[in-house]
Amino acid sequence: MSTTALKEVSPKSSDHVSPRWKQNAKPIQKFGTVIRSLPIGIDEKVRTEVCEQLNLMLADTSSLRDLYKKSHWQVGGPTFYQLHLLFDKHFGEQVELVDLLAERIQTLGGVSVAMAHDVAELTRLERPPRDREEVPVQISRVLEAHESIIQHARALAKRAQDLGDDGTNDLLISEVVRTNELQVWFISEHLVEMPLVHAK
């Protein structure tokens, strides 16, 4: 092949490695639906009900995750260092729960909620102000969020068990409930009045 021929082919061949980044298409699955036929032994109607509830829990857990990060950034006072680290640790554990819940929804053939504006529409947790609040108020907000999630998780776990969805039941009890209960213990102890030097 001549050098002239190579020069003529070269510009055209470069088109094959250019990213085709302005693409659009119809959704492959609508939010709120599940794949009709899925060989996991759970009926479509059951999967639809469970995915709807799991998406609510995912939205709440995503909100709690972000509440921990807000608290991590805005905490202050004598316990700043301890709470700054603890809030961030709990944030990381909530990140893991978000991923587990989203993957469970996808495993059941559903579509997991993902974007912040969609989470904001679905969550049942009270929206905190943009302002910086005192530490006891920050902790109280976190504890109220935990209580809401734990109550919902227990109810949904029972419902999933009744419907024969053992995987969801196991996820909720082994991961969601236990993680949230443990975090409640660590956080609530910061609201207990305890003498540091002299016993009463």
Strand content: under 5%
Order of helices and strands: HHHHHH
CATH topology: Ferritin
Q: What is the alpha-carbon Rg in Å?
A: 24 Å
Separate helix tally: 6
Residue-averaged pLDDT: 93
Low-confidence stretches: none
From the helix content, strand content and strand pairing, which structural class follows? mainly alpha
Give structural attributes.
single chain; about 65% helix; globular; 6 helices; mainly alpha; Ferritin; about 200 residues
What does this structure look like?
With 200 residues, the protein is an all-alpha fold. It is 65% helix and 0% strand. It has six helices and no strands. α2 packs antiparallel against α5 (135-163). The model has no long low-confidence stretch (mean pLDDT 93).
What's the topology here?
Layout: H1 3-14, H2 44-74, H3 80-107, H4 116-122, H5 135-163, H6 166-188
Quick overview of this protein structure:
The chain has helices at residues 3-14, 44-74, 80-107, 116-122, 135-163, 166-188. With 200 residues, the chain is an all-alpha fold.
